[in-house]
Specification:
single chain; 7-stranded mixed sheet; alpha/beta; 226 residues
Length: 226
Amino acid sequence: MAWDRLVAVHPTGAFVNRAAYWDLCKPSSPHGAPPGPLPVGWTPYEGHGPGVELLGEPRTALELGAGEGREAAWLARSGVRVTGVDVSAVQVARARRWWADVRGLDFVCADVETYLAGTGRVWDVVYSIWGAAWFCDPESLFPLVRRRFVPGGRFVFSHGETAPERSGPEFLRPRADVPGVPRWCYPPQEWAARLKAAGFVSAEVSVVPGTEGGRATVVGVGRTGP
C-alpha cells in the first residue's frame, strides 16, 4: 500500500484497527530475501539528515513500530541489544524471518502502549522512525516511554511534517473498506511541550527539510538526564 494513497478523513464513525491497517503496510517481498539492514536515520531519504548519533552510545534499545526491522537489525549488528515492537503480526513474522541470524535482536508482536505498560524492562534508548510515536496519543504514550529508561536514557522519534494548521489527531484511511488509524499532528514546540509534560528534563524538536522538494521530517529528542 503506497503512502501517497493515504487520505485524511473525519474520525466520526471511523473504524480503527491498527493491526489490520499495518498488516497492509509495506508488503514488499514478504517471502523473498531481506533487502539488507538500513543504517539508522530519521528521514525517508537514506543518508539525509541526522543519523545514529542521536541515540548516543546505547547498549540496549527499544524500537516502537519496528515494521520490517531493517534499522533494528543494523543497530543490533553494531553491538546494541535491540527489541522491536510492532502491532502487526505480518510485520513481526517477516522481521523475525528476515533477521533470524542477527544476534541480540528480538521482535515482539504487541500494541506498543500495552507492551510499555506491562513490561518491567528498561533501556538506554527508545526510538521510533516514522513509527508508533506518530500513531499513538502522546498524552498516553510519552509517560509510558518515560518510565522505561535506565538513568540518563533518551527518547528519539521522527515523523512526517504536517500542515501547521493541524493540531491533534487526524484519521488516515486508504479506502472506505479498509480499517484506518489516527495519527497525531503538532508543531515542533507542541511536541517539545508534551515531552516536558511527560517528565523529560530536556526536549529538542526540529524540522529537517526534505530533499528536492520532498516531505520534511519532524525529529524529537527527549532526555531523562544530563
